[in-house]
Write a structure and sequence with these properties.
64% of the residues lie in helices and 12% in strands. The chain contains 5 helices and 2 strands; from the N terminus they run ααββααα. A two-stranded antiparallel ribbon has the order 1-2. Strand 1 and strand 2 form a beta hairpin. Helix 1 runs antiparallel to helix 5. The N and C termini lie close together (11 Å).
Length: 103
């Protein structure tokens, strides 16, 4: 049974890597500074996926996300947090891959 739990954990971390690429692509497409977009990442911990910004890039990410009086908000992080289908597919795909090694 421990091998099954390990497969689930590994699949979730693989899915987080896929989701990181997806999140960065969305930020690039929305016009985020490349340096900021490349410092976005998705983590899996405690049974949950969450988007994070590397230290030192939070303020610039906030400007892209929420806008200012001179720039429109993009909502990339908020939209990403509410769209689960691609991440779920990535998890299921990776789970099948990891369970295949166990079963």
């Amino acid at each position: 049974m421990e091998e099954v739990f390990s497969a689930i954990e590994n699949a979730a971390h693989d899915a987080a890597r896929y989701m990181t690429v997806d999140l960065r692509n969305r930020a690039h497409a929305a016009g985020w500074d490349s340096e900021v977009a490349e410092n976005l990442h998705v983590r899996y911990a405690g049974g949950n996926f969450s988007a994070h910004v590397s230290p030192g890039y939070e303020e610039r990410a906030h400007v892209h996300e929420y806008g200012t009086e001179h720039s429109r908000p993009t909502g990339v992080l908020r939209k990403f947090a509410n769209e689960h289908s691609d991440g779920e597919r990535a998890f299921v795909h990776n789970l099948n891959k990891h369970l295949g090694k166990v079963l």
